[in-house]
Write a structure and sequence with these properties.
122 residues, 86% helix, mainly alpha
Length: 122
């Protein structure tokens, strides 16, 4: 039951953070998908970082897993929004832009996760 409380409270914070950051980014750009890309890059980095903290600092595995990774970052990042935005770009015949978005999302998010994991080794 405690893990459910950790997950739910992390999810509320993550969803709210995503909403705020997405709106800030959308306010300054003409492309709505950039907010999803930025949020997913930030989330990927933080997941890698938190995994390395848990390994190196012996923090509570339940707190890291349920509150931070599944709850907060799980609701902060989203693959479903990414998928929807790619389909929207394809239906709008913005093929090149959709390919760039897919490439950047996959490559930069994976690199961000790796960087997050490596930052504690410095």
């Amino acid at each position: 039951m405690f893990n459910l409380i950790l997950l739910a409270s992390g999810g509320a914070i993550g969803a709210s953070s995503r909403y705020l950051i997405s709106n800030i980014i959308k306010h300054y750009t003409n492309f709505g998908f950039l907010s999803t890309l930025c949020v997913n890059i930030i989330g990927s980095f933080l997941i890698g970082y938190l995994i390395s903290i848990g390994v190196n600092k012996n923090l509570s595995n339940e707190f890291i897993k349920y509150f931070l990774i599944i709850g907060l970052l799980g609701s902060f990042t989203t693959f479903s929004t990414f998928s929807y935005e790619v389909v929207e770009l394809l239906l709008s015949k913005k093929i090149f832009l959709s390919i760039i978005y897919i490439f950047l999302s996959v490559v930069i998010c994976i690199l961000s996760t790796y960087l997050g994991m490596q930052i504690n080794k410095i």
